[in-house]
Structures are given as C-alpha cells and as structure tokens.
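## retry 2 of 3
previous attempt timed out at serialization; input unchanged, resubmitting
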Amino acid sequence: MLDVHEPEHPIHGVRDFLLHLFTITVGLLIALGLEASVEALHHRHQREEAESLIRHEIRSNLDLLHQGAPGTLAERQQMMTVLRALEAFERSAPAALHDSDLVFHEAPIQDAAWRTASSTGALAYMDYAEVERFSDAYKEQALLQTMEEQALDDYLELLPILAHDSGSRVISPEIARQAIPFARRIVAHLDGMLAVGAGTIGTYDAALKP
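## retry succeeded, writing output
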C-alpha cells in the first residue's frame, strides 16, 4: 500500500509543481522497486525450496526402486511357481502349493513434494525444461503405482480362494480354475512393474541432472 501525501508547503509556480511531481514519481518508483525486489526474493526462495524438496524426494524414490527391483523379480518367480502348481491342480496332476510362495510386498512411492509445489504455484518459478523432466518422472511413477495397486488387488482376490490352515496345500481342480486368472494377472502386473520400474528409474536419472 503506497501513500502519497499533500505537500507540506503551498506550491508556487510551475517549477515548484514539477519539483513536487518529480519527488513523488521518484518515491513511487523506489517503493515499487523495493516491493518487486522483496517479491522476487520470496519467489526465489519458494523455487529453491521446492526444487530441493523435489530432488530429495526423487532421490529417495530412486533408492527405493533400486532396492525393490530384486524383490519384485523374486515375487514374479514365486507367482510363476504358484501358477504352474494351479495349472497342474486343474489337470488333477501331482503338485504342491506352499504359503511361502504367496508373498507380495507393497512399497509406496512418495510424491508429496511434487504435489505441494504444484498446489502452491512454486513450479511457475522454475525453469521450464526442469519442470518438464520432473513431470515426466512423476508420470512414470504414477503408472508404476497403478500397476502395483492392481497387482495387490489381485493378490487380495487370490488369497481367500486359496485360504487354508496348513503350510502346504493341495487344491481341487475347481478351486484351481477359479484361482488361475488371478495368478496370471498378477504375473502380468509384475512383468509390467519390472518394465515400468526400469523406465521410471530412467526418468528419475534424467530429472536429477543439473
């Protein structure tokens, strides 16, 4: 809020008027310049803070994916064992199904820093190319999370069908037929997670470039 006050002394002549007008103009320009400088510093602080938080979040997610990839591959191999056993049960062929093969680990990936920067408008103060790289990384991440959620949903559908108290199971052909579609979908989702996870790691690496 800028205030312009009346002159303390009466204005005599054009010269006094122009001097007073010049003084007011200079004062307004200085005030506007200071206000713009303060706002620019605030925007710079927002940009630097948001960029730092996003980069930290992406690094954490990158570490999580590197650590989780072997586990996802192992889960895929275990589910293939389950699927082969179920297909054998469906044919009434000898097979065994163990509880240790029915394991799925969910690893939520964080996106709070990105969502906060988007909602507060901090992205508008960042370099366009950098924001584009961040956006690509989080789009791939969202796709990976969707596939993980789909795999989990199928696990939650499969487990009640195969519910049993013992550690080693013998499944009837009817139950096997019910379970096989879920097992196949889980394998497909895990294959997708491995492929999309590799793509996500690539977009993470690109986003973290200086």
